[in-house]
Amino acid sequence: MIILDRFEENFAVCETGNGFIQLPRKLLPLNAREGCVLTQHNGKYYIDAVKTQERIRISKEKQAKVLKKF
Fold first, then answer.
1. Domain membership of residue 40 as a residue range
2. Residue 13, burial from CB neighbour count under 10 angstroms (0-12, 13-18, 19+)
3. CA separation for the pair 57, 25 (Å, rounded)
4. What is the spatial order of strands in the sheet that 44-47 belongs to?
5. Is the distance from CB of 21 to CB of 11 less than 8 angstroms?
6. 23 strand-pairing partners
7. Pairing between β-strand 11-16 and β-strand 19-24 as defined by DSSP bridges
8. Cα(46)–Cα(13) distance, rounded to whole angstroms?
9. I need a labelling partner for 7 at 20 to 30 A (CA). Which of 24, 36, 45, 50 fits?
10. CB 52 within 8 Å of CB 22
11. C-alpha distances in angstroms, 47 versus 11, 13, 28?
12. What's residue 69's pLDDT?
């Protein structure tokens, strides 16, 4: 799994299971945003909408649990 962490100039810094990598921004879809889950196929990168939405849902659930403690 490749998770888009942030953009730095013309590169996207992405988290993988083995650490961080930098990808040229031009290789990513124009609608790629921080937090998107990416897949690679034949040298091209795509947003995995299902996995991205799952990450967002889990993140919101964790955030809600933390806020309930206050």
1. 2-68
2. middle
3. 26
4. 19-24, 11-16, 2-8, 37-41, 44-47
5. no
6. 12
7. antiparallel
8. 15
9. 50
10. no
11. 16, 15, 9
12. 76
Residue 21 belongs to a domain with what CATH number?
2.30.30
Q: Centre a 10 Å sphere on the Cβ of residue 19 and count the other Cβ atoms it contains.
A: 7
* Amino acid at residue number 46: Y
Counted domains in the chain: 1
- Residue 70: what pLDDT? 74
| Residue 2 tokens, joined | 């490749």
Q: What backbone phi and psi angles, to 5 degrees, belong to 44?
A: -115, 150
pTM for the whole structure: 0.85
User: What is the helix (H) or strand (E) element at residue 21, kind and residue range?
Assistant: strand 19-24
Q: Which of 62, 46, 44 is nearest to 54 (CA)?
A: 62
Over the stretch 21-44, which tens digit does the pLDDT of each residue have?
A: 999 999 999 999 999 999 999 989
